[in-house]
Amino acid sequence: MNRIYLDHAATSPVHPKSAEKLAEVLTTVYGNPSSIHGTGREARKLLDESREVLAKSIGADVNDIILTSGGTEADNLAIFGTAYGRKDEGKHIITSEIEHHAVLNSCKKLEKEGYEVTYLPVDQAGKVSIDDFKAALRPDTILVTIMYGNNEIGTIQPINEIGDLLADHPATFHTDAVQAYGIVPLDVKKLNVDLLSVSSHKVNGPKGIGFLFQKPKTLLYTQLIGGEQERKRRAGTENVPAAAAFAEAVKIAQDSLEEKRERYERFRKIFIDVLDESGIDYHVNGGVQPYLPHILNISFKGTDVESFLVNLDLEGVSASSGSACTAGSIDPSHVLIAMYGKEARELRDSIRFSFGYGLTEEDVRKSAESTVKIVKRLVK
């Protein structure tokens, strides 16, 4: 059976060119980039070149990039680094109810340590209200952390507007852009953010590496203690092969942003057209512009998410019920709870399909047809 992978929001296949770069550097560039001899300088040169690619991709300067082990560490560094670094200025944090668990669980930990966190609600499109944000903002707010685009429903938040509102406020502004990076254009200067998190494995790069953008003069308390790597901001010998492979994937992603947007919009249309032609009962969760075009979260009335996913798997289609970090237990989506309430049927009948590298229009059509077949079988 040729499987069709529709779970790119969970992780993406490594692009062949990125894999080639990883293997090449892993076997030829083995020096420690902190060493001053020729072997170390070779590694440093490659690391610096990779960092330049990453910085350019978000309109940042090369020294603004802190390499991390992935999006979770980048989020943790942003949140704990800000909270601990600015605790004498205040202990109020603003986030949203639909953040990734790397953000939500970090905030919950801080609450246990005496910090106060405001969790902004969202509407049924999964979007935070600017009015709610204005009402929550206080003189003692030290951190605002709002994701750019949601990983379950694809809704894009009003980051520009929030950034403008914070221009004259001392709070540090962080956005988790893990799901949006490589899908939509991002410019940290236009967004007016102080911190921005990114992960390699969402853009067809290797797992285990990401970065945190840190705007100059943004206070950040170091979390990993050791050497003076990453300009004394994140200790530990840098993963040069992964950084080079990450940069290779980023080059490819940045060169194809518009082409991908158009392709994913075609995929969405094909999928939805098949559903419409079948006459089954469904609705899209979120799906209100602006959204991330590669994420399509659909509620199928009368179905059960667990049996639906099993049936999709038997049909050779890989999809999910939401975030890969919690999908193992098929717990109700905190995103859908925030949108619809704890008793909503969407918690039990929603599937996330997400598009990416290697997918064809025929793959999408076949997946939609399999979906229709499963719905008709499950709905009695």
TrEMBL record:
<keyword id="KW-0808">Transferase</keyword>
<dbReference type="InterPro" id="IPR016454">
    <property type="entry name" value="Cysteine_dSase"/>
</dbReference>
<dbReference type="InterPro" id="IPR000192">
    <property type="entry name" value="Aminotrans_V_dom"/>
</dbReference>
<keyword id="KW-0479">Metal-binding</keyword>
<comment type="similarity">
    <text>Belongs to the class-V pyridoxal-phosphate-dependent aminotransferase family. NifS/IscS subfamily.</text>
</comment>
<dbReference type="InterPro" id="IPR015421">
    <property type="entry name" value="PyrdxlP-dep_Trfase_major"/>
</dbReference>
<protein>
    <recommendedName>
        <fullName>cysteine desulfurase</fullName>
        <ecNumber>2.8.1.7</ecNumber>
    </recommendedName>
</protein>
<feature type="domain" description="Aminotransferase class V">
    <location>
        <begin position="4"/>
        <end position="365"/>
    </location>
</feature>
<dbReference type="InterPro" id="IPR015424">
    <property type="entry name" value="PyrdxlP-dep_Trfase"/>
</dbReference>
<dbReference type="InterPro" id="IPR020578">
    <property type="entry name" value="Aminotrans_V_PyrdxlP_BS"/>
</dbReference>
<keyword id="KW-0411">Iron-sulfur</keyword>
<keyword id="KW-0663">Pyridoxal phosphate</keyword>
<dbReference type="Pfam" id="PF00266">
    <property type="entry name" value="Aminotran_5"/>
</dbReference>
<dbReference type="InterPro" id="IPR015422">
    <property type="entry name" value="PyrdxlP-dep_Trfase_small"/>
</dbReference>
<keyword id="KW-0408">Iron</keyword>
